[in-house]
Structure formats: structure tokens, C-alpha cells
């Protein structure tokens, strides 16, 4: 089976397009190994940068302005081609795209055609930072190889099991339904993967395990997972609701919007921009990198301390709320950039929650480690876990399963 024409098409390219970045991985699904990983940052700026690392080669960095996600993906395709793994490679089975908003319709991974593209486009108003980037990525990939199957894996899909008492807002039913206003939830691929991995870490069946997952990246969300299914999650119609994030406010009184419009004369777009891009940690202290915030706080910076405290206070409220939603909690799992790396955030979030059965082993918590692990003491009733998320692997697995079936 080593001849060129007989090599199986078992590779999947995964594209995770954020508002100003693209993360990508090329995976071999025979052994789930990574053949290349990379990142394009600062898309839309003069200082765009691509970092590409093939599994068996040197890390390469390219700096050139990339105006949009199309230009970024074209540059990624060129890097892959230089390693003999271009988008026209017969070994490539499919491209899996992370698509942030799938609305109510997409409850599972879906092969992309014109109609699916149109539906993703229709959802742009409820995911303005994300769906346009996803669409550009998909269109460019299709132009580069029209024959290649493209699969959309939706952030919202995992949350479609939420019961209506969790997904419906308490507003007029007819108005809500006419405009598809409800809570959808996001980061679903991560919540699904991490809740399953947490059960595995505990040596338990995911179908009988209840987990609170705290996905703390730049965007951040919490979910209550009962027996492998989402019972509630903190993001809503859009990825703005819930936890305090890098640049997003999370929960606020909706009347803040009317107030800013009436009293400060701000337009709808201006308030939208304020809450999505100039709020959260950035709005509170000018920084959205948790490393920097903790460093400043430790040097006595009052604004950084307040930002940290507000971030953690919100997190603790959700831990309490989801303990009540689930009734019995087996584990709280921290994941994504902040969750996996910030021992001070984990400590402040769990400290004093003995009443909920939670505790932390401060030594285990401060160890650096990139594998899933427990950081709670043996005697704690509820386990606390740090579980690295792997959205790319999960997207590749779902994509590959779909194109093979
Ligand atoms: N060592 C670290 N300590 C604390 N926070 C970290 C560390 N590494 C990364 N982060 C945080 O993780 C965030 C990015 O998380 P990530 O999950 O990659 O987000 P996204 O996928 O939304 O880009 C950074 O903004 C930073 O705040
Ligand atoms: C949905 C969402 O917030 O995604 P990200 O964390 O990639 O911004
Ligand atoms: Mg992320």
C-alpha cells in the first residue's frame, strides 16, 4: 500500500477561522497524527503573520499583509503545497470547517453545498464576528479545489439538546419565534470533547457523568453537561452572553443598551461594537491576555486586580448556577487558553467552594502539564480537572466519519 496511487485518502485539513485569525491542522486519520499545524494572525492588518510547522520539518514564519480570510487561506494552501500536501493532494479526503453559528437547523456535521452556504450566510446577523470569516474560508477552499468535500462542524450543534426551559428567553413567544430569538450556545465542539475526556479521566462512562465545563479562551463559555448531553450553557443568541471574556462583556442588563442609546446617543452598531470589542477584560483594564493581567495585578495595579476579580466572580456564579442545574456534579473541568494555563484563575474560581464539594490541591494546580489531569484533593466530593481541548481533532474526526459514510 505504499504506491502513490494506492495511498488512501485519509487526511483531513481543519480550518478554525476566528474573527482575525485562522488556526489550521492537517491530520492523518489513520493514526490521528498531525502532519502540519499553523496559524495566521492579524488578518486585515498590515502586520499579518503566518506560522507554519510541518510535523517533520522546520517552523516557517511569513509576514505579509493578508487583507481577509481568503488571502490567509491561499497563503496556507501555498505552505501546505510546498510540503507536498497541497489542497489538490489525492490523499486529502476533506476539509473540515469550524462554523460558529448553525442556528436551529444544523444539529450535526454537514457536507457544504450552495444551500448550506446560503443558510450560514443567513445567520451572519447573529454571529457577526465569526460567520463571515467562516464563509470566506469555505468559499476560498472551494475555489482552490472544487472537487474536495467540505464539511461544516457547528459550534452550536452540541447545545441543541438543551431543554426549552434553558434555551428560551422569557420574552413574547411570537416575537421570539418569528425572529429565531433563542439561546443557541457556542464552543460546542469543545464542550462535547472536554466533557467526554473528563469522564474518561475519572474512569467513568460519559453517559453517567455530570460535568461543568469552563471553556476559557478569548471567547469564554460555561456548560452544564448531564450524561454527555448539554443541559445549559452560558452563551445565547450570539457569543456575547455569559462569562466575562477577552473583549466581550458577557451578561449585562439589556437596558444598558437602551440607556446608552438614549442618554449617550450611541447607535446600535456603536453599542454592538462596545459590548463585543471594547468590553470584557480589555474594557476593564486595557489588556485581554490573562498572563499580563495577573502580572499587573501582582505588581499592585488596581485596574488589573478589579478586572481579574470581576472575571472570577462571574465564573463562580456560573459554577454555583450549574451545580443547581445538574443537582449532582461529578467534575468541574477547566479548558482553553486561560482554563488550561492560568493556575491563579483556577484557584480563585474554586477557593472557598467547599460547600459545593469543591476543593483544589494547590500544588497540583500550579504544576504545568499539557495532559488532562485532576487538580483536586482525593477527598473532594467533586473532582476538578484541567483538560486540554482539541477542537481540531474533534472536527477532523467528525468530518472524516461523515465523508466516509
Ligand atoms: N500561560 C497562560 N497563562 C494565562 N493565560 C493564558 C496563557 N496562555 C494563554 N492564555 C490566555 O488564553 C487566551 C487565548 O485562549 P485560546 O483558547 O487560544 O483562545 P481563542 O481560541 O479564542 O483564540 C489568551 O488571550 C490568554 O488570555
Ligand atoms: C464562539 C466564540 O466565542 O468563539 P471564539 O472563542 O473562537 O471567539
Ligand atoms: Mg478557541
UniProtKB/TrEMBL annotation:
<keyword id="KW-0547">Nucleotide-binding</keyword>
<feature type="binding site">
    <location>
        <position position="23"/>
    </location>
    <ligand>
        <name>ATP</name>
    </ligand>
</feature>
<keyword id="KW-0460">Magnesium</keyword>
<dbReference type="GO" id="GO:0006085">
    <property type="term" value="P:acetyl-CoA biosynthetic process"/>
</dbReference>
<feature type="site" description="Transition state stabilizer">
    <location>
        <position position="248"/>
    </location>
</feature>
<feature type="binding site">
    <location>
        <position position="16"/>
    </location>
    <ligand>
        <name>Mg(2+)</name>
    </ligand>
</feature>
<feature type="binding site">
    <location>
        <position position="98"/>
    </location>
    <ligand>
        <name>substrate</name>
    </ligand>
</feature>
<comment type="similarity">
    <text>Belongs to the acetokinase family.</text>
</comment>
<feature type="binding site">
    <location>
        <begin position="337"/>
        <end position="341"/>
    </location>
    <ligand>
        <name>ATP</name>
    </ligand>
</feature>
<comment type="function">
    <text>Catalyzes the formation of acetyl phosphate from acetate and ATP. Can also catalyze the reverse reaction.</text>
</comment>
<feature type="site" description="Transition state stabilizer">
    <location>
        <position position="187"/>
    </location>
</feature>
<feature type="active site" description="Proton donor/acceptor">
    <location>
        <position position="155"/>
    </location>
</feature>
<keyword id="KW-0808">Transferase</keyword>
<dbReference type="InterPro" id="IPR023865">
    <property type="entry name" value="Aliphatic_acid_kinase_CS"/>
</dbReference>
<dbReference type="GO" id="GO:0008776">
    <property type="term" value="F:acetate kinase activity"/>
</dbReference>
<dbReference type="InterPro" id="IPR000890">
    <property type="entry name" value="Aliphatic_acid_kin_short-chain"/>
</dbReference>
<dbReference type="GO" id="GO:0000287">
    <property type="term" value="F:magnesium ion binding"/>
</dbReference>
<dbReference type="GO" id="GO:0005524">
    <property type="term" value="F:ATP binding"/>
</dbReference>
<dbReference type="GO" id="GO:0006083">
    <property type="term" value="P:acetate metabolic process"/>
</dbReference>
<feature type="binding site">
    <location>
        <begin position="289"/>
        <end position="291"/>
    </location>
    <ligand>
        <name>ATP</name>
    </ligand>
</feature>
<feature type="binding site">
    <location>
        <begin position="215"/>
        <end position="219"/>
    </location>
    <ligand>
        <name>ATP</name>
    </ligand>
</feature>
<feature type="binding site">
    <location>
        <position position="391"/>
    </location>
    <ligand>
        <name>Mg(2+)</name>
    </ligand>
</feature>
<dbReference type="GO" id="GO:0005737">
    <property type="term" value="C:cytoplasm"/>
</dbReference>
<comment type="pathway">
    <text>Metabolic intermediate biosynthesis; acetyl-CoA biosynthesis; acetyl-CoA from acetate: step 1/2.</text>
</comment>
<keyword id="KW-0067">ATP-binding</keyword>
<dbReference type="InterPro" id="IPR004372">
    <property type="entry name" value="Ac/propionate_kinase"/>
</dbReference>
<keyword id="KW-0479">Metal-binding</keyword>
<protein>
    <recommendedName>
        <fullName>Acetate kinase</fullName>
        <ecNumber>2.7.2.1</ecNumber>
    </recommendedName>
</protein>
<comment type="subunit">
    <text>Homodimer.</text>
</comment>
<dbReference type="Pfam" id="PF00871">
    <property type="entry name" value="Acetate_kinase"/>
</dbReference>
<keyword id="KW-0418">Kinase</keyword>
<keyword id="KW-0963">Cytoplasm</keyword>
<dbReference type="InterPro" id="IPR043129">
    <property type="entry name" value="ATPase_NBD"/>
</dbReference>
